[in-house]
Amino acid sequence: MQTYRSELHVHTVLSPCAGVEMIPPLIVQTALKNGLRLLAVTDHNSSANARAVIEAARGTELSVLPGMELQTREEVHLLCLFDTLQQSEAWQKIVEAALPNLANKPDFFGEQFIVDATGDFLRREERLLLNSTRLTLAEAARHVTALGGLAIPAHVDRPANGLIPLLGLIPPGFAALEISRHLSPAAAREKFPQLREQVLIQNGDVHYQNDFLGTTRLRLEEPTIAEIRLALEGENGRSISIDNLLAQI
């Protein structure tokens, strides 16, 4: 069993709200510098840069999961994590069919760059990614689970795109909920009674190099979705813990 200091919510230059420095080699370099052993690439409504980050991390101690931060019809953000690129690419096809065909306006929203493992430019994503898909939260979670992935509502405490402010309730069936970097688990449960019986994870919602948080520690046999599920359930010696946040903010 090994402990994986984790960051499961990382954006690249494909997300128009991310910094220009969020290219694969610098993401890997900064993650390792911060002692991380596991991260997930979760760009807005797209997984097109996941392969590049996985390739950039090859041969290092950092494991990378392909993923996405989906925006549902309700405007809730949902982390969608997978083991393989094949799974994430199958999910991408579902998302593309549900994403409005609106052109990005780089001067207003920001650039959406698809890059290779070295960070070199390949092409622009022309469709606007900062948008709600036609998938409901429940539909999205069912699709992700059917593909073998893990769906976790993101920054549920946050007024913008957070589950609790938008819906006021926690739908059943989620293995965990993500809280933002601005609250400790104890403070989150005190502020939001809906969270008192929920398993919580915490991520930095990384858009810039100094956003890496790494407060979530997962004790796993290996960095897979199945093992993460067991850790969230506290089964067979697997576990999850969140470091004290006070020194991180």
Using the 3D structure, state the CATH architecture: Alpha-Beta Barrel
The helix-strand sequence is EHEHEEHHEEHEHEHEEHE
Measured by DSSP, the beta-strand proportion falls in 15-25%
Helix content bin: 25-40%
Q: What strand line-up does the widest sheet have?
A: 7-4-3-2-1-10-11
Biggest sheet architecture:
7 strands, mixed
Helix tally equals 8
Class derived from helix and strand content:
alpha/beta
Overall number of strands: 11
CA-based shape: globular
The Cα radius of gyration reads 17 Å
CATH-level-4 superfamily name: Metal-dependent hydrolases
How many domains? The number is 1
CATH class: Alpha Beta
Distance between the termini: 30 Å
* Fold-level CATH name: TIM Barrel
Q: Return residue spans where pLDDT drops below 50 for at least 5 consecutive residues.
A: none
- What's the mean pLDDT score? 96
Give a verbal description of the structure.
With 249 residues, this protein is of the alpha/beta class. Helices cover 27% and strands 21% of the residues. The chain has one domain (2-242): TIM Barrel. It is built from eight helices and eleven strands. The strands form three sheets. It has a seven-stranded mixed β-sheet, sandwiched between helices. Strands 5-6 form a two-stranded antiparallel sheet. Strands 8-9 form a two-stranded parallel ribbon. α1 crosses α2 (50-57).
Task: Tag the structure with descriptive keywords.
249 residues; single chain; seven-stranded mixed sheet; 11 strands; TIM Barrel; alpha/beta
